[in-house]
Specification:
The structure holds 2 protein chains of 2 kinds. Chain A has a single domain, classed as 2-Layer Sandwich (Ribosomal Protein S5, domain 2). In chain A, 24% of the residues lie in helices and 33% in strands. Chain A is built from 6 helices and 12 strands. In chain A, strands 1, 2, 3, 4, 5 and 6 form a 6-stranded mixed beta sheet that branches. The mean pLDDT of chain A is 91. By secondary structure, chain B is an alpha+beta fold. Chain B folds into 2 domains: 232 residues, Ribosomal Protein S5, domain 2; 56 residues. In chain B, 44% of the residues lie in helices and 21% in strands. In chain B, helix 3 packs parallel to helix 5. The radius of gyration of chain B is 25 Å and the shape is globular. The C terminus of chain B is likely disordered. Classes of the chains: A alpha+beta, B alpha+beta. At the A-B interface, strand 3, strand 6 and strand 8 of A face helix 1, strand 3, strand 5 and helix 6 of B.
Chain lengths: 286, 326
C-alpha cells in the first residue's frame, strides 16, 4: 500500500485472520468508531479552531477569516477553501514540502463535504456583492496519524467552523451612496452554520469491511470509501480510494451503516465536545 | 486576492509598553517571565515529542530518529546529522500565513539545528539522521526560544543521549530598559529583541541573535538577566521530564500486583473442559470488556495526579520567582 508504513507479514496475517473470525486488533466491532473527542477554541489567534481526536489520530483545524474578492464567475458568494497539511510531526512516513496528492485528496473531500452540504451558505459571506466577500480558510494540520484522516479532518473542520467568529463590519459609502469600502470593527458575531456534514470511512480488507480503520488496518486495506451525510440523512460527499473495489451490495451496506454511524455521532456531537479537555491526554478507551 | 483592511480603533490607541515604575503592558515587571508549562510525550507516532505553552505561544515538537538518512549524500561519516524544521501553522498569527515555508522559517530551522547539536552525543550514530520537527501552533513572540526548549525535551523523550538540555529565552529593549521575555506586542513596538539559548550545566551559550538597537551596557544587562531566567526555565523542563517518567514508574509498580491478582483468580476458577471452549472464549471477551473501564479509571487517576503535580509545579515555580525577586 502506498499510503502507510511497512507492516510485517505476520502482523498482516494476524489482522486478516482476526477479521475472518469477526474480530479486530483493538477489540472493536466492525461497525464501531474509536472514541471521538473534540476540543474547541484551542487556538485563540484563529477566528475558529478545534482539535479532533479519533482514537490516537489528532487533527488540529484553524479557521482564518479575511476580506477578499469573489471569484469573477460567482460574484454573489463568499469563498471557503480547505487545506490539509500532513506535517512530518505526525508520522515517520510524512515528509515536508508542498501538499502531495494524498493531502490534496483529503482536503478536497473535506471541502466537498462542507460545500455540498451547504454547511456555510456562501451568500451569507457576501459583504459588497461582486466586490468584497469573506474568505474562510480552513487549515487542517494532522498532528498524530493513526489512521482514518478523512473522518478526523471533517470532524475537526466542522468543529472549527462551529465556533468561528466573524468580525462585525461597517460599510463605507462613497459620495453617491454606493458601498465603497469596509471597516472592520472590534466586535464579532458567530458564523452561521446551516448544516453539519459528518462522514464515515470504511476500509475493505479481503472480504471484510470495517468502519474507522486504524493505521495498521489502513496499511493492509484493499479499498477505502468515505461517505458524508447531512443531518437530513442525505449523502453530501463520497470518495472511494485505493486500488481495490467494492461490489454494489457492499456499497449499499456501507451506505446503511454510514447513515447510522453519522446519526450517532451527530446526536452526541455536543457531548463529545469538551472545551476543558486536554488535547494531549491519552484517553483512548471508549 | 486578499485585501488587507486596517483595523481602525486599535491602531490609533498607543500601547504603553513600560511605565516609569517598570510595569509592562501586560502587568509584568522587567524580569518577569510569562507562564510556561511543558508536556512530554504528547504524540503517539513520534519517537519523542513535547508541547510547550509559553504565554500564548503553543509549540509542538516531535523527534524521529536516529534513522536512515535521505538523501544519502548528506550523511556525515563520523556522527548523526541533526536536521531541524521550524514551521508555523497558517492560523498561528493574526493574518493568515501562507503555508509555504518563508525565509524566516528556514533561517530559524538552521540556527535551531545548530543550537541543538552541541547538546547531543551525535557521534554515537554515524551516517544517520535525527529529525526534529517543530510546529508553532500559535505564536505570540519569542517562538524560537520556546521552540528550542521544547525541541530539547522532545530529544530527551526520544531517548537520545544528551549532554544537557537546551533552554531558550529572549530579552528586549523597551525605551532603553532591558526586559525579559518579549511578547508579540513588545517585539513589534519595542526597540530591540535578543533571543538566546543556553546549556545550563555546561554553561555555554549555543544561540544568540539580536535585532533592533542595544547599547553595549544594555546588551550586557540583558545577557545578565537571561542566564538566571534560563535556569528557571530549565527547572520547569526537568520537572516535566521527570513527571512523565515518574508516572510510568507508578504504572509499572502497579502492574505486578495486578498480575498476581489475575493469577489468583485463575487458580480459584476450576479449569473447564475443552468442550466449553466457546463459552470460555465468551467469558474472556466479557472480562476484556470490563477491563478497559478499570484501566480507564486508573488512567484518570494518574492524569489527575499529574494535573495536580503540574499545578504544584506552577505554584512552586511562581513562589521561586517571587523569592528570587526578594
Amino acid at each position: 500500500m502506498t499510503n502507510a508504513g511497512l507492516i510485517s507479514l505476520v502482523e498482516r496475517e494476524h489482522i486478516q485472520s482476526l477479521l475472518d473470525h469477526g474480530k479486530r486488533t483493538d477489540g472493536r466491532s466492525f461497525e464501531e468508531f474509536r472514541k471521538i473527542t473534540i476540543i474547541p477554541s484551542y487556538i485563540q489567534k484563529a477566528e475558529g479552531s478545534a482539535m479532533a481526536k479519533l482514537g490516537k489520530s489528532k487533527v488540529l483545524a484553524g479557521v482564518k477569516v479575511q476580506i477578499g474578492n469573489p471569484f469573477p464567475d460567482t460574484p454573489n458568494s463568499g469563498v471557503v477553501t480547505t487545506t490539509v497539511e500532513l506535517v512530518p510531526i505526525a508520522s515517520p512516513d510524512f515528509e515536508s514540502g508542498p501538499p502531495r496528492a494524498r493531502a490534496i485528496e483529503i482536503a478536497r473531500v473535506t471541502d466537498r463535504a462542507i460545500r455540498e452540504s451547504k454547511a456555510v451558505n456562501p451568500e451569507s459571506l457576501v459583504i459588497i456583492p461582486g466586490k468584497k466577500v469573506w474568505v474562510l480558510f480552513i487549515d487542517l494540520y494532522v498532528l498524530d496519524y493513526d489512521g482514518n484522516l478523512f473522518d478526523a479532518c471533517i470532524l475537526a473542520a466542522v468543529a472549527a467552523l462551529r465556533n468561528a467568529q466573524i468580525p462585525d463590519i461597517k460599510i463605507i459609502n462613497d459620495a453617491e451612496g454606493n458601498p465603497e469600502d469596509v471597516e472592520l470593527l472590534e466586535t464579532t458575531h458567530p458564523l452561521l452554520m446551516d448544516h453539519i456534514p459528518i462522514s464515515c470511512t470504511f476500509a475493505k480488507i479481503g472480504k471484510n469491511i470495517i468502519v474507522d480503520p486504524i493505521l495498521k488496518e489502513e496499511s493492509i486495506l484493499d479499498a477505502r470509501i468515505t461517505l458524508a451525510f447531512t443531518e437530513e440523512n442525505k449523502i453530501c460527499a463520497t470518495q472511494k480510494g485505493e486500488s481495490g473495489s467494492f461490489s454494489l451490495d457492499e456499497i449499499k451496506k456501507c451506505i446503511d451503516i454510514a447513515s447510522e454511524r453519522t446519526k450517532e455521532i451527530r446526536s452526541k456531537l455536543d457531548a463529545i465536545t469538551d472545551p476543558k479537555g486536554n488535547p494531549w491526554s491519552d484517553d483512548l478507551k471508549s | 486576492m486578499i485585501i488587507s483592511v486596517k483595523k481602525m480603533s486599535k491602531d490609533k490607541e498607543e500601547v504603553v509598553l513600560i511605565t516609569k515604575d517598570g510595569i509592562r503592558h501586560d502587568g509584568r515587571k522587567k524580569d518577569d517571565l510569562r507562564d510556561i508549562s511543558f508536556h512530554v510525550g504528547v504524540l503517539d507516532r513520534a519517537d519523542g515529542s513535547a508541547l510547550i505553552t509559553w504565554g500564548r505561544n503553543k509549540i509542538l515538537a516531535a523527534v524521529y530518529g536516529p534513522r536512515e538518512l535521505h538523501p544519502k549524500h548528506m550523511a556525515l561519516p563520523d556522527r548523526a546529522l541533526i536536521r531541524c524544521e521550524y514551521r508555523m501553522a497558517t492560523f498561528s498569527v493574526p493574518d493568515r500565513k501562507s503555508p509555504a515555508p518563508k525565509r524566516r522559517e528556514r533561517e530559524i530551522s538552521k540556527i535551531l539545528a545548530e543550537a541543538l547539536e552541541p547538546s547531543v552525543f551525535n557521534y554515537l550514530y554515524p551516517r544517520s539522521v535525527i529529525d526534529v520537527y517543530i510546529n508553532v501552533l500559535q505564536a505570540d513572540g519569542g517562538t524560537r526560544c520556546a521552540a528550542i526548549a521544547v525541541a530539547s525535551l522532545a530529544l530527551a523523550d526520544a531517548g537520545i543521549p544528551l549532554k544537557d538540555l537546551v533552554v531558550g529565552c529572549a530579552a528586549g529593549n523597551l525605551y532603553d530598559q532591558a526586559v525579559l521575555d518579549l511578547d508579540d506586542v513588545e517585539d513589534k513596538e519595542g526597540q530591540g529583541d535578543m533571543p538566546l539559548a543556553y546549556l545550563p550545566h555546561i554553561d555555554e551559550i549555543v544561540l544568540l541573535q539580536s535585532d533592533g538597537v542595544f547599547s553595549p551596557d544594555l546588551y550586557k544587562t540583558a545577557l545578565d538577566m537571561l542566564i538566571p531566567a534560563c535556569k528557571k526555565i530549565y527547572k520547569l523542563q526537568r520537572d516535566a521530564l521527570k513527571s512523565k517518567y515518574s508516572q510510568i514508574t507508578e504504572e509499572v509498580a502497579d502492574a505486578p500486583e495486578k498480575e498476581a491478582k489475575s493469577k489468583e483468580k485463575a487458580k480459584k476458577e476450576p479449569a473447564k473442559p475443552a468442550k466449553d471452549g466457546k463459552k470460555e472464549a465468551k467469558k474472556k471477551a466479557d472480562d476484556k470488556k470490563e477491563k478497559p473501564s478499570e484501566k480507564e479509571a486508573k488512567k484518570r487517576k494518574f492524569s489527575k495526579k499529574s494535573d495536580k503535580k503540574t499545578d504544584d509545579e506552577k505554584k512552586s515555580s511562581t513562589k521561586k520567582e517571587k523569592d528570587d525577586k526578594k
